Amino acid sequence: MVSAVVLALVGPVGSASATKSFSTKPVPAVSGTLRVGSTVTANPRKWAPRPTSLSYQWYVGSHAVKGATGRSWKLPAAVSGKRIHVTVTARRAGYATASRASAAKKVTPGVLAGPSPTISGPATVGSTLTAVPGTWSPRTTLRYQWSRSGAAVSGATGPTYAVGFADEGAAISVTVTGAKAGHAARSVTSAAVTVAVPSALGAGQTLLAGQYLRSPSGQYTLVQQDDGNLVEYKDSTAVWSSGTHGSGLRTAMQGDGNAVVYDGGSAKWSTDSWGSGGTQLVLQDDGNLVVYDANGKAVWAPNVVGWITVYTGSTAGGASGTQSQSQATLASTQFRVYPVGTRLPVTCGITNGQAVDGSATPGTAKTSTWHRLLWGDWVADADFKTTVDGLVPKGILGFVANEPNCGGGGGGGQTTTLPGMNGWVYPIQPHAKLTTYSGHNGDDFPVGIGTPVYAMYGGTVSIPAAYAVTSAWCPVAAAIGRTQQDLIVNSSRDGHAYRFDYAHLSSFSVSNGQTVQAGTLLGYSGDRGCVTGPHLHIDIKLDGKANQIYPHNLIGWSY
After folding, report:
1. Between residues 125 and 70, which one has the greater pLDDT?
2. pLDDT tens sequence across 403-434
3. Rounded distance, CA 324 to CA 338, Å?
4. How far apart (Å, rounded) are the C-alpha atoms in residues 514 and 491?
5. In the 8-state DSSP scheme, what is residue 293?
6. At residue 39, what are phi and psi to the nearest 5 degrees?
7. What average pLDDT does this structure show over 521-538?
8. What is 427-555's CATH number?
9. Is the per-residue pLDDT at 486 higher than 90?
10. pLDDT for 311-335, tens place per residue?
11. Adjacent-strand bridge partners of 206
């Protein structure tokens, strides 16, 4: 609050008993900047004879300012735009007291000093940007206005800004305005930050018409079009769509794990992945559109044709639930047990004559129908109550026209019986959790020596000569001087060249130049080369470029 200027009248000056007058009574001058916040000083000039004392009184207009009786006065906000002067009063024994007033001068508004603000925080959709205004002098009230590509964003008037899909690709800046009574307002604008186009739609986020996701490489784009269709493009060619139409449609990633295209409150298309734990819809560099859960596990992809739910009567090895196998036969390795109530995404089915004991199929104890799940393992029809929990929305479970034939269980044009995802085989079976660290060029699979390692995809094997581990590239002091030999598989898929480097193997099961398929045994894990302990390392070059895609982009962080 600006303090009011308290004015007091000064009484008459002079002395009736004085017998002499000052011979020289100069007009005082005022020095200093006549601006609010500055200090002005009275210059009484030279009186004659010399006074024994001089006193001062500052005035605003014709009103004396209470307390402003010093030679200097700091101009308060209340005098902005007003005229001030000072009266100097001289006294000397035997002389009549005399006063002279300076010329009145107008006070200009004060000047606020404040730096250009900066913006902190990641410029990505879903993040929060914070304005950093710096230090202003004098202390003042600050106002904020955020702008998108130079236009003020309605309602964005706080020190923070929530970045939304409307901001993708736009330049975001903030203008800070200082305001203080008696001072001229000052506005300064930050440098703009460009919001990166996201590759993921997180839980609670929505794509509106004209908004989009883009893969990290920039080659693939998922657009919520104005015509209501959700379309994925590879460069300028459409490669997938939701098949929806209408004005004002939007795509929402819901907290229940389902991604839905809505027309108002009506769902027009969905991944149907509710209850899956899905937290984000991701557009990957390989062109795959995937729903992942919080642990990095894929729970939906476009090749999912329906869902099956583990029936309450299912049992597996005495446990409540159903078991899955690594192949479509009970003679294969049991992959895992899925608890009752679990919804499982199905990509295809196969009828291979393999009879399976069933505990929940009404009216029969046998079945020969198997269903392949998104991540590559198989479940038998016998473990599900098909008259209740069929493929959604495909109808009653069973090998029907709506459920594609797996063609031997392969994916991506290659035949394999090992679990994986979207045609990428899990290199460590049946389970693994991937790890990495900052600056790492690939992902690590923490496994012991002698664990089988399988080809993630088919191609041609290349085994370069062993090479020495040096301190120039290896940070592990104990590994310096060892030798390392990598196993390379050069693959081609969907018009892209993939170079898979499998490192630290203890032995190889394939030879240089050999053609392998997805799921071929390549060798066994080890601790050779630049390592602190046994593990499998895989890095990938995409179209000859490193650090464009990683194993976790293809198969998730855990399976």
Report:
1. 70
2. 666 654 333 334 555 777 777 888 998 788 99
3. 8
4. 12
5. E
6. -110, 130
7. 92
8. 2.70.70.10
9. yes
10. 766 777 677 778 888 877 777 777 8
11. 252
CATH of 29-109, one of 1.20.810.10, 3.20.20.100, 2.60.40.2700, 3.90.1150.10: 2.60.40.2700
Side chain identity at residue 65, one-letter code: V
pLDDT band at 12 (very low <50, low <70, confident <90, very high): very low
Return d(Cα 404, Cα 412) in angstroms, integer. Answer: 14
Nearest to 384 by CA among 341, 348, 419, 420: 341
Q: Which two tokens stand for residue 190?
A: 């930050």
SS3 letters across 156-216: CCCCEEECCHHHCCCEEEEEEEEECCCEECEEEECCCEECECCCEEECCCEECCCCEEECC
Q: Are 184 and 127 in contact (CB under 8 A)?
A: no
366-375 burial code (b ≥16 CB/10 A, e <16): ebbbbbbbbb
Please write the tens of the pLDDT for every residue from 382-411: 656 544 333 333 333 443 435 666 654 333
User: Is the previous residue joined to 464 through a cis bond, with omega within 30 degrees of 0?
Assistant: no
Strand ranges for 92-127 from DSSP E: 98-101, 105-106, 110-111, 118-120
Strands (E) located in 235-389: 237-241, 250-253, 259-263, 266-270, 278-283, 289-293, 298-300, 306-309, 315-316, 319-325, 334-339, 343-351, 369-373, 378-380
Count of C-beta atoms within a 10 Å radius of residue 170: 20
- CATH architecture under which domain 112-194 falls: Sandwich (2.60)
pTM above 0.90, yes or no: no
Reference 96, options 135, 130, 49, 60; nearest CA is 49
Q: Cα dihedral angle (493, 494, 499, 504), rounded to 10 degrees?
A: -60
Residues 343/308, Cβ–Cβ less than 8 Å: yes
| Cα first-last separation, the chain | 63
Answer whether the bond into residue 302 is a cis peptide, omega within 30°: no
Give the start-to-end residue ranges of the domains of the chain: 29-109, 112-194, 200-300, 306-409, 427-555
Q: Rounded to whole angstroms, what are the CA distances from 312 to 36, 319, 360, 370, 415? A: 80, 11, 8, 19, 34
Tell me the average pLDDT across 336-356.
75
Domains 29-109 and 112-194 share a fold: yes
Comparing 512 with 1, which gets the higher pLDDT?
A: 512
Q: What is the CATH number of domain 200-300?
A: 2.90.10.10
